[in-house]
Amino acid sequence: MPSRPPRTHRRSTPWLLIAPALGWLAVFSLWPALNTAVLSFTNVHTLSGGQFIGPHNYQLMWQDPQLRDAIVNTLVFMAVCVPLLTFLPLLLALLVQRTLPFMGFFRTVFYFPVIASAVVVALIWQWLLDDRGLVNGLARQAGLVHSAVPFLTDRWLLLASAIALTVWKGLGYYMVLYLSALGNVRRELHEAAAVDGAGAVRRFWAVTVPGVRGTMALVSVLIAVSAMRVFTELYVLGGRTGGVGGQDVSLVMLIQQAAAGSDGRLGYASALSVFLFVLTVGPLLLLARWNRRTD
Amino acid sequence: MRHHHRRRSPVFDAVTPLGLTVRYLTLLAVLAITVGPMLWELSTSLKAITEDVYTASPHLLPRHPTLGNYGRVGRLIPIGHFALNSALVAVIDVAGNLAGATAAGYALARLSFRGRRLVLGLFLSTLVLPGEVTIISQYQTVTRLGLGDSLLGVALPSVIGALNVLLMRNAFLAVPAELEEAAVIDGATVWQRLRFIALPAVKGTLSVIAILTFIGAWDDFLWPLLVLQSPDKLTLTVGLSYLQGAFTADPRTIAAGAMIALLPVLALFVALQRYFFRGVGEGAVKG
């Protein structure tokens, strides 16, 4: 445990410094978290105070046929994104890690998709994947397809497109996380393995992966949590109701739809939020257990 | 930086021509995948209305490049006004985070007081809370404050972020304590120590926070979509999403709008990327 710094200041000084941040935390994080749970048992609307109605919102929620679609979409989205975004950025980080010419350039440019707004990214990809867009154009030219592939109008193809877009946008972000973790991998282990005749692939599994295992676990949880929150990609790519027939809705899209407008059903949206919270905390608890076991 | 001076092992560090070729070819392929879609969008935005963008044989370079699509976006939606709205929100959030996270981070790292661990725990606890879960209650709070449908309402919840407080705390913890102890002996107050000793040492993390906060505010979509209704108050991302369906189906115009949202943040990032990557290294959280 770190030793306490000596007291060289007035008793009130730390609190003066912390007060704004603590105030913000209380008003915009802690209180809303508790309040959401309370609101979920009311029929409160945007502009009118609600009454306590018990678990009615939760009963409504289970009868909502869109909820099943949202859960399936979100879980498929998560199941594909987690392995892809856990491994691909690690390989990318290994490629740009060495001090060779132009590595700074590559790092910077690989980060570009991260900086772009999800709305912009979705607009770009919508144009790429349009029936008459670049991807279909090239595929037709190469003789791969005869009629356009319906990337944006077929339920599963739209979901796949949103996944591709998410992986594309996330690569650079997780690459940077891995870059700082790779700095801590002991070089001697690599050299020893190389002397023993281990090739690049063997060294990757025997030295690199164990060396960044903590970061890998963190990264996969970050991806799982952000996959639970998927919204903008599907909203822009598929349309504001979640694609054709509303089949590509996500949990957050249902929350937004319930809360939108001047007469938004905030109580119902809160019940959905509580459900989202429960689903999100799952992977976090798994990580906590996994961390405890490996420490 | 240390790597440069370390003695290199001939076996491990040998750079074979074949290895180099494969490495750079792979990097170029990834480069094509990451910036290709952006370049294609840029190219579309520069293609004249007379040029067939749907052509079956796509070409990247516009035959007769024009900025006309950018003017057309401006006539369809007040995009400059939206950009100003976004910039205003982003500037409020950057200023708030730099000041608020610095103050709180310093107190948590460098000052002793009762309840420090509890406060730290509170900040940590909110990291596991996805923003979307609390968004409904935040929306209610902002509307009750009379800030619904206002840019201040958009900016408010992100003025101080818990993650930034923790990043600043980590950065201050990494500053050698001896520096400050010497200043204490010289009779420096907390404020003087913060201003003249601690702050200059954490510039890297400060710039990372500034860059990430700006990008986060500029790019945010769900929260402004929920808060804003009046067409003249929209931020750029929300305004753009209206461009897509309601006004036009012309890919050139949409592409021009997307570029107006994309290019300023890219330019900002390229200008500051040196500080960004240095700061990320400096504040690396050992996981």
UniProtKB/TrEMBL annotation, chain A:
UniProt entry keywords in alphabetical sequence = Cell membrane, Membrane, Transmembrane, Transmembrane helix, Transport
Q: What is the lineage of its organism?
A: Bacteria, Bacillati, Actinomycetota, Actinomycetes, Kitasatosporales
Q: Would the keyword Transmembrane be found if you checked this record's keyword annotation?
A: yes
Ranges that cross the membrane: 12-34, 70-96, 108-128, 156-179, 212-231, 266-288
Protein name (record): Carbohydrate ABC transporter membrane protein 1 (CUT1 family)
- Signal peptide position in this chain? none
UniProt source species:
Kitasatospora viridis
Localization annotation: Cell membrane
- Domain named ABC transmembrane type-1: which ranges? 71-287
**Main localization category:** membrane
Question: Topology relative to the membrane, per the entry?
Answer: Multi-pass membrane protein
Which protein family is named in the record? Answer: Belongs to the binding-protein-dependent transport system permease family.
> Which PANTHER family does the record associate with it?
ABC TRANSPORTER PERMEASE PROTEIN (PTHR30193), LACTOSE TRANSPORT SYSTEM PERMEASE PROTEIN LACF (PTHR30193:SF44)
InterPro entries named in the record: ABC_transporter_permease (IPR051393), MetI-like (IPR000515), MetI-like_sf (IPR035906)
Its GO biological process terms?
Answer: transmembrane transport
Q: Name one GO cellular component term.
A: plasma membrane
TrEMBL record, chain B:
Show the PROSITE patterns listed in the entry: ABC_TM1
Q: Which SUPFAM superfamilies match?
A: MetI-like
Record's bilayer topology term = Multi-pass membrane protein
Check the UniProt entry and state the signal peptide residues, or none: none
Record has Methyltransferase as a keyword = no
* Domain ABC transmembrane type-1 residue range list: 83-272
Share an example GO biological-process annotation for this protein.
Answer: transmembrane transport
TM regions (residue ranges): 21-40, 82-106, 118-139, 151-175, 196-218, 253-272
**Would the keyword Transmembrane be found if you checked this record's keyword annotation?**
yes
**A single Gene Ontology CC term:** plasma membrane
- Keyword terms of this UniProt record: Cell membrane, Membrane, Transmembrane, Transmembrane helix, Transport
The principal location of this protein is membrane
Can you tell me which family this protein belongs to?
Belongs to the binding-protein-dependent transport system permease family.
The family database entries (PANTHER family) matched by this protein are listed as: ABC TRANSPORTER PERMEASE PROTEIN MG189-RELATED-RELATED, LACTOSE TRANSPORT SYSTEM PERMEASE PROTEIN LACG
Q: What is this protein called?
A: Carbohydrate ABC transporter membrane protein 2 (CUT1 family)
* Phylogenetic lineage: Bacteria, Bacillati, Actinomycetota, Actinomycetes, Kitasatosporales
